[in-house]
UniProtKB/TrEMBL annotation:
Residues with PTM 4-aspartylphosphate: D56
Organism in which the protein naturally occurs: Pseudaminobacter soli
Residue span, Response regulatory domain: 6-117
Database matches in SMART domains: REC
Matches recorded under SUPFAM superfamilies: CheY-like
Keywords: Phosphoprotein
Any one GO biological process: phosphorelay signal transduction system
Any Pfam family matching the protein: Response_reg
Gene3D superfamilies, alphabetized: 3.40.50.2300
Name of the featured protein: Response regulator
């Protein structure tokens, strides 16, 4: 379902990021780039383009909503990944973005990523 795609994964938990990378590769992704901080993610996005992204809503206590807004402005489809299902005050801005809960279910994650590309 992700054949040939280049995926950005913004996740601060290393083992979770590795799991998402493997899920994406198993689904056919050509390249999966892991970013553990907002700074790394911004640097990767300034240097290259991505077909889709998986964005953890919170990196520790730090919100990723501003980064998600920048992805939206660039036209990069993405999904949120989180242990939280409530987007709070950002719910309206991201009403069209799928939130996949942790722990990930492989099929759900892949289908959500593939669907995000159809919405973009």
């Amino acid at each position: 379902m992700l054949e040939g795609l280049r995926i950005l994964v913004l996740e601060d938990e290393f083992l979770i990021a590795m799991d998402v990378e493997q899920i994406c590769r198993d689904a056919g992704a050509a390249d999966v780039v892991l970013a553990r901080t907002l700074e790394e993610a911004e640097a990767f996005c300034s240097e290259s383009t991505f077909d889709a992204a998986v964005v953890d809503i919170f990196l520790g206590q730090q919100s990723t909503f501003a980064f998600a807004s920048s992805l939206k402005a660039r036209g990069t489809p993405f999904i949120f990944a989180s242990g939280y299902s409530d987007l709070g005050e950002n719910a309206a801005e991201f009403a069209d973005v799928t939130v996949v809960g942790k722990p990930y279910e492989e099929t759900e994650l892949v289908k959500a990523l593939a669907a995000s590309r159809l919405k973009a």
